[in-house]
Amino acid sequence: MNIAVLNETSSGEARVALMPDSIQKLVAAKASVSVESGAGLGAARTDDDFRNAGASVVTDRKALLADADVLVCVSHPGDEVFQAMKKGGVVLGFLRPLDEPTKLVLALESGLTTFSMELVPRITRAQAMDALSSMATVAGYKAVLMGADYIPRMFPLLMTAAGTVPPARVLVLGAGVAGLQAIATARRLGAVVEAYDVRAAAGEQVRSLGAKFLEVDLGGIQTEDKGGYAVELSEEALKRGRDLIAEQAKSADVIITTAQVPGRRAPVLMDEDAVNGMKRGSVVIDLAGATGGNVTLSKADEVVERNGVTIMAPTNLPATVPVHASQLYSRNVTAFLNLLIKDGELHIDMNDDVVGPSCVTHEGKWVNQRVAAAMGTG
Ligand code: NAD
Questions:
Q1: Which of these, 12, 175, 230, 343, is most buried using a 10 Å CB contact count?
Q2: Nearest residue CA, atom 42 of ligand 1?
């Protein structure tokens, strides 16, 4: 079984899908791995690092793809890659099947089997493959550093001979994986942190990190599904949250928003009035930019200024921490690949409770029902 790793081509992407330590494990499992020359440089890994781990390093991208049984990538590799692979080949990566299903039509038509890391079920058995959580952890951490770097003040409380410097106030909206990491990072830097989430279970986690959990009376409605994920709220419930947030935003120096509802547009948590009520010099970092944003004024990957308040919506923060983001992602995809390798050969068991649900296309058909429905064939 030949596993291929390419240079990522999307703009600003510095991660690599497999790091040398993972390659060693795959080679030990009798797979062979080929890496395109230079693929690891963004993540501080040279061609020699990959060779030493047991991979072959290839400069001819077309030849590498023609030989590949499995291509592992971080993001969508591009149509020409799908066309260059052999029928029955496997592609594994963040393929955005629910957001951009049409971009996988060529993979379907080329007879490729595609697995999307976004679709890996969040069950205990698949925890080691949960790349969404890995990347959310990196994004939550980096968002706080961006905020700390941007504001014209310091984070910690300082008592000096020249007087006392009060701590920065950080408000985190959405206390899932990214939000909790943001809270922990902001606390370590000495900020006073408050957080809001619609899931009651988040309250205990927020408090355990030393932050204050903001409670909103949502009238006892159901806010989460069986799997523990937030559900789409009524406009009335969203408004109650927004009113509280607008009030708290007045005293915040940094606001980090991470609220998402799986498969839906991100909920709007801050409107223009809420931003207008903020202090000059404060900053909002909207981590839901890729799914529409939590802040009406935010624009994906742009910096917006409004009355001295800066609003940013970076959509790929993990790529700005490429070494550790690659390391975590590489381990996640390697855990998934281990489900596909038997005695060094490719073996796809669609009845497996992780493999089947993660599949988007197989043998010329849309396997995932939601994607099939989005493509009008479900
Ligand atoms: P997510 O990225 O879908 O959403 C981020 C947060 O936004 C969630 O906490 C959600 O409750 C919150 N949110 C949604 N709508 C909101 C609104 N209107 N106002 C305020 N907050 C809102 O979620 P996630 O971070 O991927 O994970 C959320 C939950 O899933 C957590 O409990 C996490 O521990 C759990 N989880 C479980 C596993 C597993 O079992 N393997 C893996 C990852 C996450």
A1: 175
A2: 122
